Amino acid sequence: MSDPTTSNNPLRIVVLISGSGTNLQAMIDQIHHTEVPARLVAVISNRADAYGLQRAEQAGIPARVLNHRDYESREAYDTALQTLIDEYRPDLIVLAGFMRILSDDFVRHYQGRMINIHPSLLPRYKGLNTHQRALEAGDIEHGCSVHYVTTELDSGPVILQAGVPIEASDTPESLAQKVHQQEHCIYPQVIDWIARGRVSLQDDTVLLDGQPISEQQRRCQAKN
Ligand code: GAR
């Protein structure tokens, strides 16, 4: 990985998506409107109908489709995906609503340079239907987390989280909307940190400016 602190080369990012790509859009806007030393070098989707592909094309970013249905096994798909990703020589792989379980070999290949956003305050609600589950549990707070990807699903070290209060009138849809809004704030923040060489992973510990990240730094205040 190029070291952003010692080189003028922008961080090369490949984004993986499966759907609408609003998080991708937040990154496109960030890179267009700020001085973050990062470049989106490709967007790859496992679904040809993902709207995020259009967002990429409109922004002039190479948009590629690799359909998982064309492969016999998860391992075969992930091997092809890895080959495609590595064509772009990425420093960072960003999972932005990429709705696939990843094989261990694939995850290990990108250890320490692959991040994900998950719609819950991890370690709560790994997996699917997080908004519904938070409501059913009677939680008063929900949120989202950006974390490094490890071989255990939604369990890698957390870099940044944002919470949203749950109101009595909330539905899974209203909660999803509120969480999305926070996602669009914390994902660009993490990309900024990584691009500037401020955040890295050492063993299982997230470092911010060379020190283990504190609980306080890991928790972003909700913005409207
Ligand atoms: C986001 O809410 C993200 O947290 C979630 O998919 C959505 C993608 O939205 N990811 C997961 O659930 C991964 N486990 P987007 O396509 O509009 O960015």
Q: Helix- and strand-based class?
A: alpha/beta
Order of helices and strands: EHEHEHEHEHEEHEEEHE
Q: Give the rounded overall mean pLDDT.
A: 95
Overall helicity = 25-40%
Say which CATH homologous superfamily is assigned.
Formyl transferase, N-terminal domain
Please tell me what the overall shape is.
Answer: globular
Number of helical regions: 7
* Global Rg: 17 Å
How many domains? 1
- For the secondary structure, the number of strands is 11
For the record, the CATH class is Alpha Beta
CATH architecture: 3-Layer(aba) Sandwich
Record the strand order, biggest sheet.
3-2-1-4-5-6-7-11
| Uncertain ranges | none
**Largest sheet properties:** 8 strands, mixed
Bound molecules: glycinamide ribonucleotide
Proportion of residues in β-strands: 15-25%
CATH topology: Rossmann fold
3D structure, described in words:
It is a single chain. With 224 residues, the protein is α/β, with parallel strands linked by helices. It has one domain: Rossmann fold (3-Layer(aba) Sandwich). Helices cover 33% and strands 25% of the residues. The strands form 2 sheets. It has an 8-stranded mixed β-sheet with strand order 3-2-1-4-5-6-7-11. A 3-stranded antiparallel β-sheet has the order 8-9-10. The longest helix is centred in the C-terminal third of the chain and has 24 residues. The N and C termini lie far apart (35 Å). Bound molecules: glycinamide ribonucleotide. Glycinamide ribonucleotide binds next to helix 1, strand 5 and helix 6.
